[in-house]
Amino acid sequence: MTIHEMNADLLPFADPGFQHDPYPFYRVARDLTPLYESPIGVFAVMRHRDVADLLRDRRLSAAQLDFGIANIFHDSVLGMDSPDHGRLRRMSAKWFTPDRISEWIVETRRIVDNALDEGEAAGGLDACQDLSFAATFGTMAYILGVGTHDAAECRQKVIDMGRALRPAATDADVAGAEEAFSWYVEYIRDLIVFKRRHPGESLLDSFIAAQGAGEMSEDEIMATVTLFYAVGHLDNSFLIQNGIMLLAGMPVERELFRSQPEVRNDMISEVLRIDTPEQFVTRFVLEDIDISGETLPAGSIVLGMIGSANRDDRVFPDPDAFDHTRPELTRLQMAFGAGQHGCHGQLLARAQAECAIGGLVERFPEYRISGPVTHHHTEFIRNISTLPIEFH
């Protein structure tokens, strides 16, 4: 069946059922076609091999995308093509090496231990606000050399921004995101002013120094720090939350995570695979591209459906089951993207997940979910809102 023969909407982005659980929809679309033309005017690439190839294809552009209210991100690596992308990426990539991650994770561990201490005294905690968000936001603030003031508002503004960066965004979503972006611009501007008055040796200090050397603009600093605040806590928080939620219902795997640290990296990869924090990446197509016999036309907008790719049974047999022993799992799962735009903060994300989930299961191996789990998933971003757990 070709993309031109379909009448029903296989990917109903605005449907609450789709947003809650898109994976059955992906399976149907993936089996029918490698390339789906959505009624909303975008193309979706569904299968693992095709998505992997697509994300490495230089015939796609991030710079040519219209980000709308999020056009600030064209001054970050998210919205650039080479050579500007490479120049800006080098500015921050050196801060996310294994040696640097070892430094940053000390701060994550301190925050996690404090949260678990307080949770032990109270008999439990909210794994979203008290543990995962506190750890990821606090660590990013530490890396940037700033405080954690207005943390809760920062979290909500990032959620508001993300709701507009999706196919089914409503007018209300766009209006909320406009306000959120305006708020963040002022927030980041205040951080830069603070750092100029109180210099140190943080990541933000290095950006300011690069600006002084003519290697980075003020707009690029603003956009990059905004991006780091967004991705550095929203996606990483979901990874931790989802790992905690999944392991709560899998006592055998939970005990493995606790007692065999050597399997933790693969288990984190499987958490990422089975429910990917960001479900797709968006690109502008510069030239016609063949997608397994179908034509992705020049001038179109394409979604590389990494959430679908991570459940493709052509690569991951029994894809809806949790199995951390899958061959080459860490290499094949695509939660961090691929190619030049692959996430260079993935080492930090993995380290934070191992620290937070590991700290929890080591101290409280019999923890359990103690109340309703709520979320605000969209078709783009997976987002758990509350995850109450109690200790025994």
Key terms:
392 residues; alpha+beta; Cytochrome p450; five-stranded mixed beta sheet; 15 helices; 12 strands
CATH top level label: Mainly Alpha
How can the largest sheet be summarized? 5 strands, mixed
- CATH fold description: Cytochrome p450
- Can you give the mean pLDDT? 92
Q: How much beta, percentage-wise?
A: 5-15%
| Tally of distinct domains | 1
Class based on secondary structure composition and strand pairing: alpha+beta
3D shape: globular
Poorly predicted spans: 1-5
Tell me the helix content.
40-55%
- Number of beta strands: 12
Number of helices: 15
InterPro entries: Cyt_P450 (IPR001128), Cyt_P450_B (IPR002397), Cyt_P450_sf (IPR036396)
Family: Belongs to the cytochrome P450 family.
GO molecular function: heme binding; iron ion binding; monooxygenase activity; oxidoreductase activity, acting on paired donors, with incorporation or reduction of molecular oxygen
Q: How is this structure best described in words?
A:
The chain is of the alpha+beta class. It has a single domain (3-390), classed as Orthogonal Bundle (Cytochrome p450), CATH 1.10.630.10. The protein is built from 15 helices and twelve strands. The protein has helices spanning 16-20, 23-32, 48-55, 84-93, 98-122, 127-144, 151-164, 171-197, 203-212, 218-248, 251-259, 264-274, 306-309, 329-332, 346-363; strands at 35-37, 43-45, 60-61, 124-126, 281-285, 289-291, 294-296, 301-304, 368-369, 374-375, 384-386, 388-390. The strands form four sheets. A five-stranded mixed β-sheet has the order 1-2-8-5-3, covered by helices on one side. A three-stranded antiparallel β-sheet has the order 4-12-9. A two-stranded antiparallel sheet has the order 6-7. The longest helix has 31 residues, at 218-248. The chain is globular, with a radius of gyration of 21 Å. The N and C termini lie far apart (54 Å). Mean pLDDT is 92; it is low at 1-5. Belongs to the cytochrome P450 family. It holds the Pfam family p450. GO terms for molecular function: heme binding; iron ion binding; monooxygenase activity; oxidoreductase activity, acting on paired donors, with incorporation or reduction of molecular oxygen.
